[in-house]
Amino acid sequence: MTRLLKILILFVCVQMSAQQGGMWIPSLLEGMNEKEMKSLGMKMTAKDIYDVNNSSLKDAVPQFNGGCTAEVISPKGLLLTNHHCGFDAIQNHSTVEHDYLQDGFWAYNMQDELPNPDMVVMFIVRIEDVTTKVLEGTQALTSEADKQKKIQENITSLSNSLPKESWQENKIRTFYEGNQYMLFVTETYKDIRLVGAPPSSIGKFGSDTDNWVWPRHTGDFSLFRIYADKNNKPAAYSKDNVPYTPKHFLPISLDGIKEDDFTLVFGYPGRTTEYLPAVAVEQIVNELNPAKIEVRDAALKVEDGFMRKDQSIKIQYASKYAGIANYWKKWIGETQGLKKSNAVALKKKDEAEFTKRVEKAAKKAEYGNLLTEFETNYKEIAPYGLARDYFQEIALRNTELTSVAFRMYQLEQVYTTKGEQAFNARKQNMIDQLVDFYKDFNKTVDEKVFEQLIAIYSKKYPAQFLPASLKNVNATALASEVYSQTKLTSLDGLKSLLNGDAKTVITNLNNDKAFKVTKEMAESYFNSVAPKYDEINLKISALQRTYVKAQLELFKDKRLFPDANSTLRVTYGKVKGYDPKDATIYTPVTYLDGVMEKYVPGDYEFDVPQKLIDLYNEKDYGQYGENGKMPVCFIGTNHTTGGNSGSPAIDAKGNLIGLNFDRVWEGTMSDIHYDPSICRNIMVDARYVLFIIDKFANAQNLMGELKLVHPKRK
Ligand code: ARG
Ligand code: ASP
Question: Span of the secretion signal (predicted)?
């Protein structure tokens, strides 16, 4: 190929992929995206994806338990989601004797499916634009706080008054930072049972070492089933409930994928911040991410040390550890990616262009001060933001004892603000909620975590806010004092501390050492940090709303998508490899051969079950293999984020081809700065899922429910 031709091809590729990215509102695809989607190879219409009057793909894609996505894959309400999304449930059903995390779990008939109290699955019935109604009566208000208050009032009254069925809910969410409001009518099912999960050596293969990394070989899936009452409506768990009959379920393609195939990922991305000014990104890269990484780094080292030595601690802490490790690693990748892609410099360039367009459009009065005001406010918020992150990461997120003590602190607040009756109700509620917490709490582990984190707090929490008693603290001495004296390290201790009338309880709490330390941290935060943080943050949100409005007006040539907000979105692209660094090219598909290459017998991250080794040796892949190889994972240019886990990857015709579960290391900054050349989402190949259900688990009861199709055959 001539050099010129190469450059030309590269240019065309960049142009084409540059149009991609974005998380789009399913009800607006027709005007916004359908044309582009078809040009990428889609054979469906926008109505096949979202339709109010007929069943469509959206009816097969519920939000799974608040934080993930799932898809219905059978007429009997069988749900597919990630192993890491079902992880808590799988862990909860596990003991050292029946360790479903280690050995996997399969219900070979419906009676064996395991109920999960509190687990929910939410479907979207319809989506409507309600911007005018939500903003009614706010235009005349000049104070930002009043405006927000009025908006909240409108949202509450609209949620109550807009039409819906008795079992449904109205949810109103903001898009484009307060420039648009959408109503979601939802249905939430509450009887969700565990049906199947591969052993962690498949479902979590590669664990934290491979997390956020390509090439990947994880069979990250698990199966649940939705149960409904006799009328197919949501109902609390009952043994009389029946499998849910969906409005739509996804057929599964046996034809697989190849590079450049169209892909669509449908799900509930949680949160992105793509329209931040450069100064905000700078703060994330230089201050906030490093602080959070440091705290979690310390907590993880402690937990890992104990988990490697003790199997019961490993079960107790598996889910918690994975949760902490996940974003710890993501923030590291994100920080690197933002630096490497020069996100701050690029944002500054965009801002220069923004300023030019503001001038040209004669909008200086409206938008001319935005960027300098961002500068001022971000500078002012810096120490408060840092203190907030340290407080949250140390006291609330990663030290378990202080997180419980903090709840006791909130209980005390309930008493002071609402009185004895509210106090008693909350108290009982808390005891009930904490039963599970103590099941997985280990005092020795947590004491070490506390020791490490309180040392960081003492050194790094901005000095002007630091409580006097925690200055220059001897962390080891304090940890041993706290953990030997507090009653909060066991459920019985907690109950005894909460025994008696409110006054007695409050006195006892205030004599408890863990309570005292936590209360000092909390009061420092709530008295010296939060009020100012909230005040500046409110200003920043108002600026951000105007900034997004301005971009929508001035950059009509760029199609702007609304930041993720945990609502249902469509993202699309192609199966595609990438070029992460000098002299390295990643192809888009991995195979079972790669699992065997990574295999380390007995290792907690890279062990492989004997049955899988046997199937590999016999090349017994049935109809799921491809040219004698078993595909495992693939990547694509779909723009996804946390919450998209478990999202279906769908082919050009609406069939399931994979299951989204992660992103590649170089592209983890996509929440802040999406770069189409290196941002890729990672999916498990649907054929690998089928292979594990059929050949590995021999769950023919489940295979019989599925609809397997050959969309590529003529
Ligand atoms: N990184 C993926 C996501 O953000 C997968 C997480 C699974 N957890 C883990 N620690 N391996 O959810
Ligand atoms: N693993 C993520 C999730 O759980 C997906 C991602 O962040 O790419 O939603």
Answer: 1-18
